[in-house]
Amino acid sequence: MLPENLIELVNEIINQKTEKQNIELKAAEKGCPNRLYDTLSSFSNQDNGGILIFGIDETQDFKIVGVYDLQDLQKKVTAQCLQMEPPVRAVFTVAEYDGAYICSAEIPGLDISERPCYYTGTGRIKGSYIRVGDADLHMTDYELYSLEAFRKHLHDDERLVERASLKSLDQDSVALYIEQKKIDRPKFAQLPEAMMYEMLNILRNGKPILAALLNFGIYPQGYFPQLGITAIIVPGTAIGDTTEQDVRFLDNKRIEGSLTVMVKEAIAFCVRNMKVRTVIDRTTGERKDQTEYPIAAIREAVLNAVIHRDYSFYTEGMPIQIDMFTDRMEIHSPGSLYGRMTVDQLGIAKTDIRNPALAVMAESMTEAENRYSGIPTMRNEMKAYGLPEPKFENRRNEFVVTFYNTVEAGTAETDAENGKKNLLDFCRTPRTRKEIADFLQVKTVGYAINKYVRPLVEAGTLKMTCPERPKSRTQKYVAAHQ
Questions:
Q1: Is the Cβ–Cβ distance between 13 and 23 less than 8 Å?
Q2: What is the pTM of this model?
Q3: For the chain, which terminal residue's Cβ has fewer other Cβ atoms within 10 angstroms, N or C?
Q4: Exposed, middle or buried: residue 215 (CB in 10 Å: 0-12, 13-18, 19+)?
Protein backbone atom coordinates (compact mmCIF):
# COMPACT_ATOMS: atom_id res chain seq x y z
CA MET A 1 0.00 0.00 0.00
CA LEU A 2 1.01 3.65 -0.29
CA PRO A 3 2.02 5.69 2.79
CA GLU A 4 -1.19 7.72 2.56
CA ASN A 5 -3.21 4.50 2.59
CA LEU A 6 -1.37 3.38 5.72
CA ILE A 7 -2.11 6.70 7.46
CA GLU A 8 -5.78 6.41 6.49
CA LEU A 9 -5.89 2.86 7.86
CA VAL A 10 -4.25 3.94 11.13
CA ASN A 11 -6.79 6.76 11.53
CA GLU A 12 -9.57 4.21 11.13
CA ILE A 13 -7.99 1.90 13.73
CA ILE A 14 -7.54 4.72 16.26
CA ASN A 15 -11.13 5.81 15.73
CA GLN A 16 -12.55 2.28 16.15
CA LYS A 17 -9.99 1.20 18.77
CA THR A 18 -9.90 -2.42 17.72
CA GLU A 19 -7.94 -5.01 15.82
CA LYS A 20 -9.74 -6.95 13.12
CA GLN A 21 -9.88 -10.18 11.18
CA ASN A 22 -7.10 -8.89 8.92
CA ILE A 23 -5.36 -6.36 11.20
CA GLU A 24 -2.85 -7.09 13.98
CA LEU A 25 -1.18 -4.31 15.99
CA LYS A 26 2.28 -4.43 17.56
CA ALA A 27 3.91 -1.66 19.59
CA ALA A 28 7.55 -2.30 18.54
CA GLU A 29 8.62 0.81 20.43
CA LYS A 30 11.49 -0.92 22.16
CA GLY A 31 12.26 -3.68 19.67
CA CYS A 32 10.85 -6.19 17.24
CA PRO A 33 8.30 -8.60 18.75
CA ASN A 34 9.97 -11.96 19.26
CA ARG A 35 7.06 -14.12 18.13
CA LEU A 36 5.07 -13.15 15.09
CA TYR A 37 4.74 -16.72 13.86
CA ASP A 38 1.14 -17.22 15.00
CA THR A 39 -0.12 -14.18 13.10
CA LEU A 40 2.07 -14.85 10.05
CA SER A 41 0.49 -18.30 9.91
CA SER A 42 -3.12 -17.21 10.46
CA PHE A 43 -2.94 -14.38 7.90
CA SER A 44 -1.34 -16.67 5.33
CA ASN A 45 -4.06 -19.24 5.91
CA GLN A 46 -6.96 -16.93 5.05
CA ASP A 47 -7.99 -15.88 1.55
CA ASN A 48 -7.25 -12.16 1.79
CA GLY A 49 -4.19 -12.34 4.02
CA GLY A 50 -3.73 -9.58 6.57
CA ILE A 51 -1.68 -6.59 7.71
CA LEU A 52 0.69 -6.30 10.67
CA ILE A 53 1.04 -2.70 11.84
CA PHE A 54 3.97 -1.73 14.05
CA GLY A 55 4.06 1.46 16.12
CA ILE A 56 0.61 1.40 17.77
CA ASP A 57 0.22 0.30 21.38
CA GLU A 58 -3.32 -0.98 22.04
CA THR A 59 -2.54 -1.29 25.78
CA GLN A 60 -2.16 2.52 25.85
CA ASP A 61 -5.55 3.19 24.27
CA PHE A 62 -4.17 2.69 20.75
CA LYS A 63 -1.53 5.35 21.15
CA ILE A 64 0.99 5.99 18.36
CA VAL A 65 4.34 5.08 19.93
CA GLY A 66 6.43 4.66 16.77
CA VAL A 67 8.96 1.92 16.04
CA TYR A 68 12.46 1.67 17.49
CA ASP A 69 14.36 1.29 14.18
CA LEU A 70 12.66 0.96 10.79
CA GLN A 71 15.50 -0.86 9.06
CA ASP A 72 16.19 -3.33 11.85
CA LEU A 73 12.46 -3.99 12.32
CA GLN A 74 11.99 -4.93 8.68
CA LYS A 75 15.08 -7.11 8.77
CA LYS A 76 13.92 -9.05 11.85
CA VAL A 77 10.33 -9.42 10.62
CA THR A 78 11.68 -10.80 7.35
CA ALA A 79 13.83 -13.26 9.29
CA GLN A 80 10.73 -14.58 11.05
CA CYS A 81 8.87 -14.75 7.74
CA LEU A 82 11.61 -17.02 6.38
CA GLN A 83 11.09 -19.44 9.26
CA MET A 84 7.59 -20.19 7.98
CA GLU A 85 6.72 -23.03 5.59
CA PRO A 86 6.12 -22.01 2.92
CA PRO A 87 8.16 -18.82 3.48
CA VAL A 88 6.10 -15.65 3.85
CA ARG A 89 6.86 -12.70 1.56
CA ALA A 90 5.84 -9.57 3.45
CA VAL A 91 5.42 -6.22 1.71
CA PHE A 92 6.46 -3.28 3.90
CA THR A 93 5.17 0.29 3.95
CA VAL A 94 6.56 3.13 6.09
CA ALA A 95 4.83 6.39 6.98
CA GLU A 96 5.31 9.24 9.42
CA TYR A 97 2.43 9.91 11.80
CA ASP A 98 2.44 12.78 14.32
CA GLY A 99 6.23 12.88 14.36
CA ALA A 100 6.67 9.12 14.79
CA TYR A 101 7.32 6.39 12.25
CA ILE A 102 4.91 3.53 11.76
CA CYS A 103 5.42 0.48 9.59
CA SER A 104 3.08 -2.08 8.05
CA ALA A 105 3.80 -5.57 6.75
CA GLU A 106 1.21 -6.92 4.32
CA ILE A 107 0.97 -10.72 4.48
CA PRO A 108 -0.53 -12.29 1.34
CA GLY A 109 -3.00 -15.14 1.66
CA LEU A 110 -1.84 -18.47 0.28
CA ASP A 111 -3.73 -20.47 -2.29
CA ILE A 112 -5.57 -23.30 -0.53
CA SER A 113 -3.35 -25.85 -2.29
CA GLU A 114 -0.33 -24.40 -0.44
CA ARG A 115 -1.89 -24.28 3.03
CA PRO A 116 -1.31 -24.61 5.89
CA CYS A 117 1.45 -22.10 6.42
CA TYR A 118 3.16 -22.96 9.69
CA TYR A 119 6.18 -22.13 11.86
CA THR A 120 8.91 -24.68 11.18
CA GLY A 121 10.17 -24.42 14.76
CA THR A 122 7.07 -26.18 16.14
CA GLY A 123 5.98 -28.16 13.08
CA ARG A 124 2.83 -28.43 11.01
CA ILE A 125 0.47 -29.62 13.74
CA LYS A 126 1.45 -27.17 16.50
CA GLY A 127 2.59 -24.31 14.26
CA SER A 128 -0.53 -23.85 12.07
CA TYR A 129 -2.99 -21.11 13.02
CA ILE A 130 -6.26 -19.68 11.79
CA ARG A 131 -7.62 -16.18 12.32
CA VAL A 132 -10.91 -15.88 14.19
CA GLY A 133 -11.92 -12.28 14.79
CA ASP A 134 -8.80 -10.60 16.18
CA ALA A 135 -7.36 -13.81 17.64
CA ASP A 136 -4.89 -16.37 16.28
CA LEU A 137 -6.09 -19.87 17.15
CA HIS A 138 -4.46 -23.25 16.62
CA MET A 139 -5.89 -25.05 13.62
CA THR A 140 -7.79 -28.13 14.71
CA ASP A 141 -6.98 -31.62 13.50
CA TYR A 142 -10.11 -31.43 11.36
CA GLU A 143 -9.06 -28.14 9.73
CA LEU A 144 -5.64 -29.54 8.92
CA TYR A 145 -7.20 -32.70 7.52
CA SER A 146 -9.61 -30.70 5.34
CA LEU A 147 -6.70 -28.92 3.67
CA GLU A 148 -4.86 -32.18 3.14
CA ALA A 149 -7.97 -33.92 1.78
CA PHE A 150 -8.47 -31.19 -0.82
CA ARG A 151 -4.81 -31.08 -1.79
CA LYS A 152 -4.54 -34.87 -2.16
CA HIS A 153 -8.03 -35.34 -3.65
CA LEU A 154 -9.13 -37.59 -0.80
CA HIS A 155 -12.87 -38.32 -0.90
CA ASP A 156 -14.36 -39.65 2.31
CA ASP A 157 -17.54 -40.79 0.59
CA GLU A 158 -15.41 -43.49 -1.07
CA ARG A 159 -14.03 -45.05 2.11
CA LEU A 160 -14.86 -48.68 2.79
CA VAL A 161 -17.38 -49.59 5.48
CA GLU A 162 -15.66 -52.69 6.80
CA ARG A 163 -18.55 -53.83 9.02
CA ALA A 164 -21.05 -53.75 6.16
CA SER A 165 -21.67 -56.14 3.27
CA LEU A 166 -23.78 -56.31 0.13
CA LYS A 167 -26.63 -57.59 2.33
CA SER A 168 -26.61 -54.21 4.12
CA LEU A 169 -27.94 -52.62 0.94
CA ASP A 170 -31.48 -52.62 -0.44
CA GLN A 171 -31.10 -55.12 -3.27
CA ASP A 172 -34.07 -53.81 -5.27
CA SER A 173 -32.69 -50.25 -5.24
CA VAL A 174 -29.24 -51.46 -6.27
CA ALA A 175 -30.69 -53.58 -9.09
CA LEU A 176 -32.75 -50.65 -10.43
CA TYR A 177 -29.69 -48.39 -10.32
CA ILE A 178 -27.57 -50.90 -12.23
CA GLU A 179 -30.35 -51.53 -14.74
CA GLN A 180 -30.66 -47.82 -15.43
CA LYS A 181 -26.94 -47.62 -16.10
CA LYS A 182 -27.26 -50.51 -18.57
CA ILE A 183 -30.00 -48.60 -20.39
CA ASP A 184 -28.01 -45.37 -20.45
CA ARG A 185 -24.79 -47.10 -21.50
CA PRO A 186 -25.62 -50.30 -23.49
CA LYS A 187 -22.02 -51.55 -23.55
CA PHE A 188 -21.94 -51.36 -19.77
CA ALA A 189 -24.13 -54.48 -19.69
CA GLN A 190 -21.29 -56.48 -21.20
CA LEU A 191 -19.13 -56.09 -18.09
CA PRO A 192 -18.92 -58.80 -15.43
CA GLU A 193 -21.22 -58.16 -12.47
CA ALA A 194 -18.32 -57.73 -10.04
CA MET A 195 -16.83 -55.04 -12.26
CA MET A 196 -20.18 -53.25 -12.48
CA TYR A 197 -20.32 -52.98 -8.70
CA GLU A 198 -16.74 -51.70 -8.68
CA MET A 199 -17.18 -49.14 -11.46
CA LEU A 200 -20.42 -47.80 -9.99
CA ASN A 201 -18.72 -47.26 -6.62
CA ILE A 202 -21.04 -49.68 -4.85
CA LEU A 203 -18.47 -52.25 -3.71
CA ARG A 204 -14.70 -52.28 -3.35
CA ASN A 205 -13.07 -55.58 -2.53
CA GLY A 206 -16.50 -56.92 -1.71
CA LYS A 207 -17.27 -54.18 0.83
CA PRO A 208 -19.73 -51.27 0.33
CA ILE A 209 -18.26 -47.80 0.23
CA LEU A 210 -19.85 -45.10 2.34
CA ALA A 211 -21.61 -43.45 -0.63
CA ALA A 212 -23.38 -46.72 -1.47
CA LEU A 213 -24.37 -47.34 2.14
CA LEU A 214 -25.88 -43.86 2.43
CA ASN A 215 -27.77 -44.08 -0.86
CA PHE A 216 -28.82 -47.75 -0.85
CA GLY A 217 -28.44 -48.79 2.79
CA ILE A 218 -31.39 -50.39 4.54
CA TYR A 219 -30.30 -48.68 7.79
CA PRO A 220 -27.06 -46.67 7.39
CA GLN A 221 -27.33 -45.31 10.94
CA GLY A 222 -26.73 -48.84 12.24
CA TYR A 223 -23.11 -48.26 11.20
CA PHE A 224 -22.94 -44.46 11.63
CA PRO A 225 -25.53 -43.41 14.24
CA GLN A 226 -25.06 -39.67 13.76
CA LEU A 227 -25.15 -39.53 9.96
CA GLY A 228 -28.77 -38.46 10.03
CA ILE A 229 -30.79 -35.29 10.52
CA THR A 230 -32.10 -33.76 13.73
CA ALA A 231 -35.01 -31.34 13.39
CA ILE A 232 -36.52 -29.11 16.05
CA ILE A 233 -39.17 -26.41 16.37
CA VAL A 234 -38.20 -23.66 18.83
CA PRO A 235 -40.95 -21.46 20.34
CA GLY A 236 -38.86 -18.33 19.99
CA THR A 237 -35.91 -16.84 18.14
CA ALA A 238 -33.06 -18.59 19.98
CA ILE A 239 -32.22 -22.04 21.32
CA GLY A 240 -33.35 -22.09 24.96
CA ASP A 241 -36.54 -20.08 24.43
CA THR A 242 -39.56 -21.84 25.92
CA THR A 243 -43.33 -21.49 26.02
CA GLU A 244 -45.22 -20.32 29.10
CA GLN A 245 -45.55 -23.99 30.03
CA ASP A 246 -41.75 -24.31 29.84
CA VAL A 247 -41.87 -26.41 26.65
CA ARG A 248 -38.49 -26.20 24.94
CA PHE A 249 -39.35 -27.80 21.59
CA LEU A 250 -42.77 -27.75 19.93
CA ASP A 251 -41.65 -30.67 17.76
CA ASN A 252 -38.47 -32.71 17.81
CA LYS A 253 -37.53 -35.51 15.43
CA ARG A 254 -34.50 -37.63 14.58
CA ILE A 255 -34.61 -38.47 10.88
CA GLU A 256 -32.82 -41.62 9.73
CA GLY A 257 -32.58 -43.91 6.71
CA SER A 258 -31.03 -43.58 3.28
CA LEU A 259 -30.48 -40.13 1.78
CA THR A 260 -33.70 -40.43 -0.24
CA VAL A 261 -35.74 -41.30 2.84
CA MET A 262 -34.14 -38.56 4.96
CA VAL A 263 -34.76 -35.85 2.38
CA LYS A 264 -38.44 -36.81 2.08
CA GLU A 265 -38.94 -37.00 5.86
CA ALA A 266 -37.10 -33.72 6.45
CA ILE A 267 -39.32 -31.91 3.96
CA ALA A 268 -42.42 -33.52 5.49
CA PHE A 269 -41.30 -32.36 8.96
CA CYS A 270 -40.89 -28.78 7.72
CA VAL A 271 -44.23 -28.80 5.88
CA ARG A 272 -45.99 -30.16 8.97
CA ASN A 273 -44.63 -27.34 11.11
CA MET A 274 -44.94 -24.45 8.68
CA LYS A 275 -47.72 -21.91 8.77
CA VAL A 276 -49.93 -21.71 5.69
CA ARG A 277 -51.53 -18.54 4.40
CA THR A 278 -54.09 -17.89 1.67
CA VAL A 279 -52.86 -15.80 -1.25
CA ILE A 280 -55.09 -14.24 -3.92
CA ASP A 281 -53.69 -13.96 -7.45
CA ARG A 282 -54.12 -10.30 -8.49
CA THR A 283 -54.56 -11.27 -12.14
CA THR A 284 -56.96 -14.22 -11.92
CA GLY A 285 -58.47 -13.69 -8.48
CA GLU A 286 -57.70 -17.32 -7.71
CA ARG A 287 -57.18 -18.21 -4.06
CA LYS A 288 -54.39 -20.62 -3.16
CA ASP A 289 -52.55 -21.75 -0.06
CA GLN A 290 -48.91 -20.76 0.35
CA THR A 291 -46.54 -22.28 2.87
CA GLU A 292 -44.44 -20.14 5.16
CA TYR A 293 -41.29 -20.97 3.16
CA PRO A 294 -41.08 -22.23 -0.44
CA ILE A 295 -40.84 -26.02 -0.33
CA ALA A 296 -38.56 -26.08 -3.38
CA ALA A 297 -36.02 -23.91 -1.54
CA ILE A 298 -36.12 -26.17 1.53
CA ARG A 299 -35.65 -29.25 -0.65
CA GLU A 300 -32.55 -27.78 -2.32
CA ALA A 301 -31.07 -26.77 1.03
CA VAL A 302 -31.61 -30.24 2.51
CA LEU A 303 -30.27 -31.94 -0.63
CA ASN A 304 -27.16 -29.75 -0.54
CA ALA A 305 -26.67 -30.62 3.11
CA VAL A 306 -26.86 -34.41 2.68
CA ILE A 307 -24.84 -34.48 -0.55
CA HIS A 308 -22.13 -31.93 0.18
CA ARG A 309 -21.63 -32.23 3.94
CA ASP A 310 -18.30 -33.47 5.25
CA TYR A 311 -18.34 -37.24 5.79
CA SER A 312 -14.85 -37.55 7.23
CA PHE A 313 -13.94 -39.37 10.42
CA TYR A 314 -13.81 -35.98 12.19
CA THR A 315 -17.45 -35.10 11.49
CA GLU A 316 -19.19 -38.48 11.42
CA GLY A 317 -20.47 -37.80 14.94
CA MET A 318 -22.30 -34.65 13.82
CA PRO A 319 -25.80 -34.84 12.32
CA ILE A 320 -27.28 -32.30 9.94
CA GLN A 321 -29.51 -29.91 11.91
CA ILE A 322 -32.76 -28.25 10.90
CA ASP A 323 -33.74 -25.57 13.42
CA MET A 324 -37.05 -23.77 12.89
CA PHE A 325 -37.56 -20.56 14.88
CA THR A 326 -40.45 -18.13 14.88
CA ASP A 327 -38.67 -15.81 12.45
CA ARG A 328 -36.41 -18.13 10.44
CA MET A 329 -35.27 -21.62 9.51
CA GLU A 330 -31.63 -22.75 9.70
CA ILE A 331 -30.08 -25.79 8.00
CA HIS A 332 -26.68 -26.65 9.51
CA SER A 333 -24.36 -28.89 7.51
CA PRO A 334 -21.16 -30.28 9.15
CA GLY A 335 -17.97 -29.08 7.51
CA SER A 336 -17.02 -25.75 5.95
CA LEU A 337 -17.23 -25.01 2.23
CA TYR A 338 -14.99 -27.32 0.25
CA GLY A 339 -11.81 -26.25 -1.50
CA ARG A 340 -11.56 -22.80 -3.04
CA MET A 341 -15.27 -22.11 -2.94
CA THR A 342 -16.30 -18.95 -1.05
CA VAL A 343 -19.74 -17.67 -0.07
CA ASP A 344 -19.47 -14.96 -2.74
CA GLN A 345 -19.06 -17.61 -5.45
CA LEU A 346 -22.02 -19.79 -4.45
CA GLY A 347 -24.32 -20.40 -7.39
CA ILE A 348 -21.85 -18.76 -9.76
CA ALA A 349 -18.51 -20.56 -9.78
CA LYS A 350 -18.03 -24.26 -10.48
CA THR A 351 -15.50 -26.01 -8.34
CA ASP A 352 -14.46 -29.43 -7.07
CA ILE A 353 -17.09 -31.61 -5.42
CA ARG A 354 -16.34 -32.97 -1.96
CA ASN A 355 -18.30 -36.23 -2.43
CA PRO A 356 -18.26 -37.10 -6.16
CA ALA A 357 -19.35 -40.75 -5.87
CA LEU A 358 -22.19 -39.92 -3.50
CA ALA A 359 -23.30 -36.98 -5.67
CA VAL A 360 -23.55 -39.11 -8.82
CA MET A 361 -25.65 -41.73 -7.02
CA ALA A 362 -27.84 -39.13 -5.35
CA GLU A 363 -28.54 -37.53 -8.73
CA SER A 364 -30.36 -40.72 -9.71
CA MET A 365 -31.79 -41.65 -6.32
CA THR A 366 -33.11 -38.24 -5.18
CA GLU A 367 -33.52 -36.55 -8.57
CA ALA A 368 -31.00 -33.97 -7.41
CA GLU A 369 -29.55 -31.91 -10.22
CA ASN A 370 -25.81 -31.91 -9.79
CA ARG A 371 -25.59 -28.85 -12.02
CA TYR A 372 -24.86 -26.08 -9.52
CA SER A 373 -28.55 -25.04 -9.68
CA GLY A 374 -29.37 -25.48 -6.00
CA ILE A 375 -28.28 -22.04 -4.78
CA PRO A 376 -29.96 -20.12 -7.64
CA THR A 377 -33.15 -22.12 -7.03
CA MET A 378 -33.17 -21.14 -3.35
CA ARG A 379 -32.68 -17.49 -4.25
CA ASN A 380 -35.33 -17.50 -6.95
CA GLU A 381 -37.91 -19.31 -4.82
CA MET A 382 -37.47 -16.95 -1.87
CA LYS A 383 -37.72 -13.96 -4.21
CA ALA A 384 -40.92 -15.33 -5.74
CA TYR A 385 -42.39 -15.57 -2.22
CA GLY A 386 -41.44 -11.95 -1.52
CA LEU A 387 -39.03 -13.07 1.21
CA PRO A 388 -35.43 -12.00 1.87
CA GLU A 389 -32.68 -13.75 -0.04
CA PRO A 390 -31.28 -16.80 1.78
CA LYS A 391 -28.29 -16.13 3.98
CA PHE A 392 -25.27 -18.41 3.47
CA GLU A 393 -22.61 -18.57 6.19
CA ASN A 394 -19.34 -20.47 6.09
CA ARG A 395 -18.58 -20.86 9.77
CA ARG A 396 -15.47 -22.46 11.21
CA ASN A 397 -16.67 -26.07 11.10
CA GLU A 398 -20.11 -25.88 9.51
CA PHE A 399 -22.05 -24.34 6.64
CA VAL A 400 -25.39 -22.72 7.47
CA VAL A 401 -28.31 -21.73 5.24
CA THR A 402 -30.90 -19.41 6.79
CA PHE A 403 -34.37 -18.66 5.40
CA TYR A 404 -36.31 -15.75 6.93
CA ASN A 405 -40.11 -15.82 6.93
CA THR A 406 -40.51 -12.04 7.14
CA VAL A 407 -38.61 -9.06 5.85
CA GLU A 408 -36.00 -8.20 8.48
CA ALA A 409 -36.07 -4.81 10.12
CA GLY A 410 -32.84 -2.87 9.97
CA THR A 411 -31.64 -4.33 6.66
CA ALA A 412 -31.91 -3.23 3.06
CA GLU A 413 -34.76 -5.71 2.61
CA THR A 414 -37.09 -3.84 4.99
CA ASP A 415 -38.18 -1.74 2.10
CA ALA A 416 -36.11 -1.53 -1.10
CA GLU A 417 -36.09 2.24 -1.31
CA ASN A 418 -35.86 2.97 2.41
CA GLY A 419 -33.07 0.43 2.72
CA LYS A 420 -31.05 2.13 0.00
CA LYS A 421 -31.66 5.53 1.53
CA ASN A 422 -30.57 4.34 4.99
CA LEU A 423 -27.35 2.89 3.60
CA LEU A 424 -26.62 6.03 1.58
CA ASP A 425 -27.20 8.19 4.65
CA PHE A 426 -24.85 5.95 6.62
CA CYS A 427 -22.21 6.32 3.89
CA ARG A 428 -22.18 10.11 3.90
CA THR A 429 -18.99 9.42 5.84
CA PRO A 430 -16.70 6.94 4.02
CA ARG A 431 -17.30 3.45 5.42
CA THR A 432 -15.32 0.21 5.29
CA ARG A 433 -16.78 -3.10 4.15
CA LYS A 434 -16.94 -4.31 7.76
CA GLU A 435 -18.70 -1.14 8.95
CA ILE A 436 -21.34 -1.56 6.25
CA ALA A 437 -21.89 -5.22 7.09
CA ASP A 438 -22.27 -4.34 10.79
CA PHE A 439 -24.72 -1.56 9.92
CA LEU A 440 -26.81 -3.99 7.85
CA GLN A 441 -26.56 -6.61 10.61
CA VAL A 442 -25.10 -9.10 8.13
CA LYS A 443 -22.38 -11.45 9.44
CA THR A 444 -20.79 -12.18 6.04
CA VAL A 445 -19.02 -9.12 4.62
CA GLY A 446 -18.89 -10.46 1.07
CA TYR A 447 -22.65 -11.05 1.10
CA ALA A 448 -23.29 -7.48 2.28
CA ILE A 449 -21.12 -6.01 -0.47
CA ASN A 450 -22.57 -8.14 -3.27
CA LYS A 451 -26.19 -7.82 -2.16
CA TYR A 452 -26.42 -4.19 -1.07
CA VAL A 453 -23.33 -2.18 -1.99
CA ARG A 454 -22.50 -3.30 -5.53
CA PRO A 455 -25.94 -2.38 -6.98
CA LEU A 456 -25.59 1.13 -5.55
CA VAL A 457 -22.07 1.48 -6.97
CA GLU A 458 -23.30 0.35 -10.38
CA ALA A 459 -26.17 2.84 -10.15
CA GLY A 460 -23.71 5.64 -9.40
CA THR A 461 -25.24 6.59 -6.05
CA LEU A 462 -22.37 5.08 -4.05
CA LYS A 463 -18.72 5.34 -5.00
CA MET A 464 -15.42 3.80 -3.96
CA THR A 465 -12.68 5.88 -2.39
CA CYS A 466 -10.09 3.83 -4.30
CA PRO A 467 -11.82 3.06 -7.63
CA GLU A 468 -8.54 2.18 -9.31
CA ARG A 469 -8.03 -0.60 -6.74
CA PRO A 470 -11.50 -2.07 -6.12
CA LYS A 471 -10.19 -4.96 -3.98
CA SER A 472 -7.91 -2.81 -1.82
CA ARG A 473 -7.95 -3.66 1.89
CA THR A 474 -8.33 0.05 2.62
CA GLN A 475 -11.31 0.43 0.28
CA LYS A 476 -14.21 2.50 1.56
CA TYR A 477 -17.58 3.48 0.15
CA VAL A 478 -19.11 6.96 0.25
CA ALA A 479 -22.38 8.45 -1.01
CA ALA A 480 -21.91 10.08 -4.40
CA HIS A 481 -24.28 12.95 -3.60
CA GLN A 482 -23.73 14.57 -0.21
A1: yes
A2: 0.78
A3: C
A4: buried
| Residue spans per domain, the chain | 3-139, 155-406, 416-479
Virtual CA dihedral for 380, 453, 396, 10, nearest 10 degrees?
180
Q: Could you tell me the mean pLDDT of each successive run of 10 residues in the chain, 482 residues long?
A: 92 89 94 96 95 94 95 97 97 94 96 95 96 92 93 94 95 94 90 93 94 96 97 93 90 96 96 86 75 95 95 95 96 93 82 90 73 84 92 91 75 47 85 86 75 85 87 85 69
Burial (0-12, 13-18, 19+ Cβ within 10 Å), 141:
exposed
CA distance 419 to 402: 20
With 0-12 / 13-18 / 19 or more C-beta atoms within 10 angstroms meaning exposed / middle / buried, residue 159 is middle
**To 10 degrees, the CA torsion angle through 297, 303, 309, 313?**
150
Integer Cα distance of 330 and 324 in angstroms: 6
Q: Distances from the Cα of 231 to the Cαs of 246, 400, 401, in angstroms?
A: 19, 14, 14
- CATH of the domain spanning 416-479: 1.10.10
Which CATH entry fits the domain spanning 3-139: 3.10.310.10, 3.30.950.30, 3.30.70.1050, 3.40.50.2300?
3.30.950.30
- b/e map 348-387, b = 16+ CB within 10 Å: eeeeebbbbbbbbbbebbbebeeeeebbebbbbbbeebeb
